[in-house]
Design brief:
Layout lengths: L3 E5 L14 H12 L6 E3 L3 E6 L8 E6 L7 H11 L6 E7 L7 E5 L7 H10 L5 E6 L9 H5 L5 H24 L1 H9 L4
Parallel strand pairs: 1-4, 1-5, 5-7
Antiparallel strand pairs: 2-3, 3-4, 6-7
Length: about 190
């Protein structure tokens, strides 16, 4: 069976744990808990890693959260791809996305990084942009707030009430990419809400 690598982007340490910028790491935590995959282990590539399967039978999935800061997360991702022998086509990066409305999840392969330093680091380190992305919508900052400041703030009280649904939806999207592929997953998650 082919192995998949799912990486949730974020910043390390408790000070950043509730930040909008850490929603990718939160989604990976959600998947690990949902499938009872056990505890993360620290991997030599400077990432927390859990290995398992979403379904049996089903492909092996390596779930990882880099232990480095967001803007240098590409090094751990490149190390994990190499160590586990995963091709770029089976790399899924889960990240916060300013250009997607808060509460929505969008899927794509390749394209630009939209000013996201984590994605920029991944693309540079692995020498490709052709990986899958689960873009977790956090929306644009209110008023004239600096986007860099906005992403490093914790979710608001109102957003925190919605957060479990957003994490659930993004985790579903990761599973769909692995199980049914990008096009079918896009049709499911990009369809207008009733």
């Amino acid at each position: 069976m082919d192995t998949w690598l799912v990486v949730g982007l974020g910043n390390p340490g408790p000070a950043y744990a509730g930040n909008r910028h850490n929603v990718g790491a939160m989604v990976v935590d959600e998947l690990v808990g949902r499938h009872r995959l056990g505890s993360f282990k620290v991997h030599r590539s400077r990432a927390r890693v859990v290995e398992g399967r979403f379904r049996v039978p089903g492909p092996k999935v390596v779930l990882a959260v880099p232990l480095t800061y967001m803007n240098v997360s590409g090094g751990p991702v490149a190390g994990l791809l190499s160590y586990f022998g995963v091709p770029v086509e089976r790399l899924i990066v889960v990240h916060d996305e300013l250009d997607v409305e808060a509460g929505l999840v969008r899927l794509k392969r390749g394209g630009g990084e939209g000013g996201h330093n984590g994605l920029r680091s991944v693309s540079a380190s692995i020498g490709s942009k052709e990986y899958l992305r689960v873009r977790v919508g956090i929306g644009r900052p209110p008023g004239r707030q600096d986007p860099a400041e906005f992403v490093l703030r914790d979710f608001s009280k109102q957003e925190r009430t919605e957060l479990p649904f957003l994490l659930d939806e993004a985790a579903d999207a990761v599973e769909a990419l692995v199980e049914i592929g990008l096009l079918d997953a896009q049709q499911r998650f990009h369809a207008p809400r009733p």
